[in-house]
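Check these lines:
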Amino acid sequence: MGSVQSSSGGAGQPVWTRALIGWHIVFWVLLGMTLALSFLGHLGTVRQSVFAGTVVVLGAAYQFIGLPAIRSRERLPRYAYRLVLIAALVVLIGIYPQSVFLMFIGSAQIWLLCEDIREGIGLSVLLILGVGTAQLWSAGWGWKAFWEILPWMLVSLVVSLLFGIWIEKVITQSQQRAELIEQLEAARDELAEAHHSAGVMAERERMAREIHDTLAQGMTSIVMLAQAAAVELSRGADASARLAAIEDTARENLAEARALVAAFTPVALSEATLTEVLRRQAERFATETGVDVQVSLDLPDDEVAALPQAQQVVLLRSAQEALANVRKHARATQVRITLGLSDDGVWIEIRDDGSGFTPATVSGGFGLNAMRGRVEESGGSVQVESAPGRGTRVQVLIPAVQEDA
């Protein structure tokens, strides 16, 4: 019963608190009817005055003690009002037995203000005993009146207990429903927060891959070209070609940075086909490193151009990452980039004749892991074959999809 309290939320608010206005109206209607009917009962001046005074006391107690107690659930006001209620009903029914129908609202208020079933049973028994005694007094005492009143008292007690238990179950269900709604709302908020956090992390990873595959590699090229230009200048040689390459790389990096702000489509692919971009990458890589890089196609150039933009981005970034690893680790003299189409989808292979490594003993670093993450997001797969002294082969396979019309 302790769950009956005011709540600001409509959905999770206990049912008895939401229905408080209805109980308020019923109480005043019944109390007013009782007072009006008492004037038809020819009670006499003294009894009528006592009866009216008791009605006023009960109304005042309800307004100034009972209602605040229902809202606040404070222990002392709850007990004080119910004791006044029981005493008032005893007086009213003793003076005018026809006002016994006030028992309906009296029993409801007793249970409404209870904290547990034992408290409700105790006060209900007290109410029935008090009202029964008042009726017995009004009937002039005697065993005949007692046996006439006893069945009514027992029936009233049973009805009161059943009514109180029903109220308790309704309130308990209301509380459980309110708690369930709170849990669902909390779960919904947690899920939304988790989705937001996952989205933020995915976006961060995506940005990290884009920066690693574009800006970081461009900066690496600039550093290597600058070092080579410094060596040539120290020897008195002409470094204008190196400086021009540095300028071109810097301009490409600037364009890529602007593209990252606006979107994630590489600038190169927005201005040329994938085949042309791969050949430009190969030429620049060969110029910067002296490694012989060849690009070959196992499918017509028009089919390459017809590939979905998302697939082209994944294939290009995979090739860039593989070339970056060749630059950093392979010490290769030849690299071959092959773009092809199979029944499983489109694939790109980057093979070098460098020093190689043992894939099982290498974690792959951020670059290879970023490549795997990007490819797997597209539903594809990455295969790395290598051995010490036997070069490395990286193959990326992207399942064939049809670009939306």
